Amino acid sequence: MRNPFIEIEQNLNESKCLVAPNHPNNQIDSVYVELKEKLDDNILQIMLYGAYNAGKSTLINALIGQEKAAVNDIPTTDKVDYYDWNGYRLIDTPGVNAPIDHEETTIEQIKRTQVMLFVIREGDQDSKDLYQRLFETIKLNKKIFIVLNHQLTNDSDKVTAYQKIIQILCHKASEYGVSNESIQEIKVLPMNVQTALKGRLKDNHLQLLERSGYVEFIDVFIDWLKSTDNQDNQLSAIKSAVNELWYQPAVNQLSTKDTSEHNELLTRCREDKQMLVSHQRSLVIEARNMISHELMLMKSDISGCIQSTHDQAQLDSQLQRLIDPIGVKLEAWINDSLGEVNGLLNVEVSHRLQQSLSSNNSEYLDKAIKGLGNMGTADNIKGLLLQGRKLKIPGLKGRWEKTLGKWAGKGAIAVQILTALWDVYSEGKAQDQQNAQEREVAVSLYQAVDEICSVVKREYGNISEQLITEILNAQIRALDDEIVKIAEEENQIQQDLQKVLNLQSQLNAIGY
Asked: How large a percentage of the chain has pLDDT more than 70?
């Protein structure tokens, strides 16, 4: 037999992982507790009551068809045990006349339970204390079903035992101030509980079950439970509460996360990615043009340096001194330019990039480090990327201690090679009296200056391109992943909404 309240509880538990992240104001836990309390009130709990050795635990085992409830002559614990059966919840307690601390547990449970399955062992019918507790529960308006647990084999003896209980109930009703109508509502059935358990454990052995009285008992008991558990209105109320407090807020939240919000963010990310790609190309060109312009302005100084220098070491030193300021200026320009590009990013896009690039294990920075690997050690490069002060882009904070100024050494190496032209020029200088030789010297000087500028332009240009490319590539790669993530989030929202709606439909279909 179905119990819709247990099905609702299962529905709640199944949907919680979907509803929780989409429930407004982070109230999911309090709502869950509230609904769970309502469900606990509506899942019919059947408390087994009687003397502690009357056969309550044996009856539970017979009902569930397994030996789960511990069977002891004397209770060893004061805890209350719960067993799900046939859509109901069976409650096993220490029982009447148990040691006082155990009995208090039983009395406390009576206050919280509406339906009692009272087990009376044949031979205990005359126990005054037993009937006192029975009538106390009747006066609390509890619904009571009595099982007379017997070992009798003769049908007439069973009838006699049954009639004796009825007589005692009727006789003591006036003594305890209980109406005859209340007594008439009490069901009493005899059953050999031990034999019933054996039949249940032997694959529902029909002969044992019939002989024990279990077959008659279970039919009557379930019908009695149905009449007792008339909860159509309560079922409707709890389903309404779950819909209003649980599902509808989540459905509204998922519905208002409409795709326009994700579409706008997706569009902004794609536009910003295209902007970064475009500026990546243009900045490389601008950097090379800037280097060319600076070298054009200093060609005469380079020429003068060559003409006034008397040895190669001096030439190397003076050329490097001329070239270094280009590196410093180029560094400042790249810092400022990349910062300006970053300033063009959408605020939300920039925030997402900041989170991606500033993580401790950023794969984007790792790739940038690898791309810039020939400019220094990995630690130094990562330090540059993560401690930059002028580059106002995600993942670059602090100060750059060594950048293009030091990289100018790359140019110096090439310059050292090129100053071999010094030998050619020196030979021509010794013969400056001859016009032809003067022209050759002039050509050699021009070529030397031009070659030096070409090397510097190439070295600084390559360094600038590598730096600009890798720094912006880190952002572009991160943006690519954000674009994929946003698209997946949008798709996930639609999937989650449909799952929640399906679970809500399942809730509404629950019934008896």
From this structure: 72
Closest C-alpha to 118, from 191, 175, 47, 68: 47
Q: Do 272 and 349 meet the contact criterion of CB atoms below 8 Å apart? A: yes
| Sheet hosting strand 187-191, strand order edge to edge | 81-85, 88-92, 45-50, 115-121, 143-149, 187-191
Mean pLDDT of the chain: 76
Residues 6+ apart with CB under 8 A from 79: 105
Per-residue pLDDT tens digits for 385-404: 333 333 332 322 322 233 33
- H/E run at residue 317: helix 312-343
Domain boundaries, the chain: 45-230, 259-361+408-481
Element spanning 433, H or E: none
Q: Could you tell me the two tokens for 177?
A: 């101030």
Q: Tokens for 111, please give them.
A: 């206050």
The 10s digit of each residue's pLDDT in 131-187 is 888 898 888 888 899 999 998 888 888 888 888 888 888 888 888 888 888 888 899
Q: Is the pLDDT of residue 243 over 90?
A: no
Query: Tens digits of per-residue pLDDT, 451-471?
Result: 778 878 887 888 888 888 887
Element at 118 (helix H, strand E): strand 115-121
Are 408 and 324 in contact by the 8 Å Cβ rule? The answer is: yes
3-class DSSP string for 76-113:
CCCCCEEEEECCEEEEECCCECCCHHHHHHHHHHHHCC
d(CA 297, CA 320): 16
Residue in the structure block whose two tokens are 């539970």:
60
Whole-angstrom distance, CA of residue 11 vs CA of residue 3? 13
CA 250 to chain centroid, in Å, comes to 16
Query: pLDDT tens digits, residue range 357-392?
Result: 666 455 655 665 555 544 444 444 344 333 333 333
CA–CA distance, 169 with 175 (Å, rounded to integer) = 10
55's torsion region: left (phi>0), alpha (psi -120 to 50) or beta? left
Query: How far does CA 227 lie from the centroid of its chain?
Result: 44
In the chain, the N- to C-terminal Cα span, in Å, equals 8
What value, to the nearest 5°, has the Cα angle with vertex 98 and ends 95 and 102?
A: 80
Phi (first) and psi of residue 74, to 5 degrees: -120, 130
Paired residues of 119 in beta bridges: 50, 147
- Cα 143 to Cα 508: distance, rounded to the nearest angstrom: 30
Alpha-helix residue ranges (DSSP H) falling in 298-311: 299-308
Question: From its phi and psi, is residue 10 left (phi > 0), alpha (psi between -120 and 50) or beta?
Answer: alpha
CATH superfamily placement of domain 45-230: P-loop containing nucleotide triphosphate hydrolases (3.40.50.300)
The single-letter DSSP state of residue 46 is: E
Q: Which tokens belong to 92?
A: 């096993």
**Pair of tokens at residue 285:** 């060109």
- Taking a C-beta distance cutoff of 8 angstroms, is the pair 229, 239 a contact? no
The values of phi and psi at residue 48, to 5°, are: -85, 125
| Three-state secondary structure call for residue 145 | strand
pTM value is 0.43
